[in-house]
Amino acid sequence: MARILIVEDELVIRTELRRLLARQGYQIAEAGSVREAESDHDPGAFDLVIADVRLPGAPGTDLVARYPGIPVLVMTSYATVRSAVDTMKLGATEYLPKPFDHDEMLRIVEAILARPRPAGLDAAQASAATRSGALAREEGGRELGMIGSSPVIREVFERIRKVAPSDATVLVLGESGTGKELVAVAIHRHSRRRDRAFVPVNCAAIPEGLIESELFGHERGAFTGATHAHAGLVEAADGGTLFLDEIGELPASAQARLLRFLQTGEVRHVGATRARRVSVRLVAATHRDLQAMVREGTFRSDLYFRLRVIEVRLPPLRERAGDAVTLARSFVARAAAGGVVRAVDGAPGVGTAEEARFVLSPEAERAIMAHPWPGNVRELENAIERAVVLCEGGSITPELLGLEEGETSPDASAMAAALPAGAAESSLSLEDYFRKFVLDHQEHLTETEIARRLGISRKTLWERRQRLGLPRHRGG
Length: 476
Fold this sequence. Notes:
21 helices; alpha/beta
């Protein structure tokens, strides 16, 4: 179980962060200042330190220099983003603006802990650093830190493996919640730049008036309030990878500057006359239709073609046959491993693994298969977290998932309905039933007839045969 030290002087934020991370199974220690962190704990013994920039006494950034072998995630308000950029140059692993989004915090923490530790760490330390990512590994995407075995997601895994070693610009496309940042992290971790900074930027989260300064830096006096010259996030990623999420939200002026950077490899601060050369691998992502935006004139066509040197399309969860249940089981296992229980006051708490044993009921798995998951993997993860927190017994039922009624995925819903009446009370899962039905009927039914009986398409039938290792009947 990975150990995380939180150094934050605001009690409300520290408590919120402690509960959030504890629910994921991490061991948490906390302090209100650098001095308190070093007097009460040994920061060098932790797998990750999360520190605010502004703290009483020494700034949280001092921990970067004092413990160079330990990953440090810096939290900062927009007023101090520039100092965070400077800190990343000193060796901070990543930064996250405050107030932070819970999902984003968890994704970044998981990504950091899944990265290989620097050479020289003993086996116990290396094991602790990667243990939290173990549940996020599955056959097919094991080394990528991603889960899935459906044919469509395996194609994504293969594309990542091919493109990661190069320095080619990558454009990741997919609906919200499909895991675009996970793709960017996987590309970085398997590139030649893995030991340098990975700088994630949500373009939609930075005010339009600040985006150019934040990305490209500014000179002293470039605008009101610019009392000092500061480097931008592009420079902070020098030697590493810059991940621009929600690239479709970039305003026109920032699009022009980004295009110039991609063409020349040079960065010029706002208000500067000279540029400096940097080496940055760019991964961009969006849920928007950039081609449509180009046609509408809201996104530059020349920038679009510069970005899509390599394109990775992430399929929505509803198109990943069988992966929803696999993911759900992994999320449940992670919650169980973390010992999530209900505290006396009704708030989420943490106990031992023995106190928290959960399993998805057959009805819940059918509901998961039938739901279209418009919010994709993120929605599924949130639904499982809700169910685990509310579950008073060991079995997670459909009601605990809190899914909207009336929303179903046609193929999955029909297949779930094909289960015999007593299947819900038995241990027969959807996959078990699919396997049994196909093997029992493939000698006398064609593929078309089997698919119709199951209420799925021939394409879905073929995909599930491939995933489950069932040979295709030659007469089908």
